[in-house]
Amino acid sequence: MESVAEEIAWEILLKLPTRDAVRCRCVSRQWRGILTDRSFIDLHAHSAHIVAGCGAEALVVTEIRSQHIGLEMAVLDSSSGKPMSRVTDLASCYRPTNACNSFLLVAADMKDSPVYVCNPVTGEKQNILPPLESEDVYSRRYAMAFSPSTGQYKLFRLCFRDSGGWPKTWENYMEVYTFGEEGGGSWRRHQHMFPYSMVPRVHRLPPVLVDGKLYVLMEGVENNWVPKPDRMLVIDAASEAHVTGEKTASVYAFELDGRLCVARRVANRQLVHFLVMEPPRVKLQDHKKGRSLYGRWELRYTFNIDEFGGSDGKLSSAWLDNGDKMLRYRLGESLYIYDTTKDDEWKMKKKNVGDFSWWDYQIQLPVAPSANDQRWNVYGGYRPSLLSPHHLVCRRNEDGQEFHHVFGRNDDGQEQFEHALAHALRWKQSSKKRCSTCPPDSDNHRVSAAKRVRVSITQCLINLLADF
């Protein structure tokens, strides 16, 4: 009877959404044993309801640094605003780099510093040691990618060399780490160089992974030698072919309905254009040279911004909430929201794509408490699953470990800010007024989460009994 009960529990848990499955680890030892079993994790990650129903989401990551605590990083769900996990044991030089399916990459622009692959849902992280680098490397940048065609995860390390001369002659090089290779994986240097330089840390934007291609913003220069972040390095995760695309102006890139989209400020920065990249025409002979990786741009939206020029120093980000289909654009402490479900109505009125649109809502975001190097940003391309970063490598490193899910801390100001930010991100169209910055009732959220898990388990049990 015990084996039958365990088999039934296995089938029920296999049908749960990822976040509910993680919560069920606390129900009993038996359920925790099932939910941490590697074969169960693999089956759950590739289940139909996880693969088909898991559109790209966005993670909100807050960062606070000081000499006493190093980096303290909280990960929130951008759709619900609910906390997922917290990192408290890394040096202050570390920063989140990009999201890749169920993982968040954290790295430092420091020589000989390992990178960390984290799963925000399960709280696990795995370190990867960096390779040896040339003496003339002045900076390096990491990005994680996944190839749907090969099913492989890869790390890309972009090394920028101080070789002088015109930027097009700079011989920067790329190194690749393939997870799951025999012997635990190793770094190898790509044979082709790439030009231009890395965008400074203040204006550095997260790399974006769309359909197996990695897009990284690069910095070119004008004729008067003024640097300008206006180039896009495109890397194909499967073939590792790469090309530096044409000028795109200062942008924030993200995934919009399975395609690359960039937000660009124009007209004295009073307008923002959202451009979508058309699928490139693939030619085998050109694909090997990297020419097929960069498509043409199509103007999708044009919006007005209430702030005039001079806001270059403000952090900006953009993402699409797959739950309510709201397009969100953050500029400093302002959040602009547009309902993309109206696009069908615009088509019926025969309005051209890219015509002037109006924001549906504008929300004032909470201001972070005064602290040394404190900020938050959004990282798209996240798809929750139970996959462990330890399973990506064949031989687990000795310090593979979990990062903390505890959200209590002594700094009341920071805690109130995170609650207020979560409350603002949970704002939905049904709200009759602008959201306030009051922290949400955490007890109500715990009750609703437990109720949702019970409903999910009950529904899965009903479906399972119906199959019999």
Question: Which key terms come to mind for this protein?
Answer:
468 residues, alpha+beta, five-stranded antiparallel sheet, 36% strand
Quick summary of this structure?
This protein has 468 residues and is α+β, with helices and mostly antiparallel strands. The chain has helices at residues 2-14, 18-23, 29-35, 38-45, 48-51, 284-287, 343-348, 412-425, 442-467, and strands at 57-66, 70-77, 83-90, 94-100, 103-108, 115-119, 124-128, 137-147, 152-161, 173-178, 187-189, 197-198, 208-210, 213-221, 227-236, 242-244, 251-256, 259-266, 271-277, 297-304, 316-321, 326-331, 334-339, 361-364, 375-382, 401-402.
Could you walk me through the main structural features you see in this protein, from its secondary elements to its overall organization?
The structure is a single chain. By secondary structure, this protein is an alpha+beta fold. The strands form six sheets. The chain has a five-stranded antiparallel β-sheet, with no helix packed on it. Strands 12, 13, 14, 15 and 16 form a five-stranded antiparallel β-sheet that branches. Strands 3-2-1-25 form a four-stranded antiparallel β-sheet, with no helix packed on it. A hairpin with a 2-residue loop joins β13 and β14. The protein is globular and about 70 Å long.
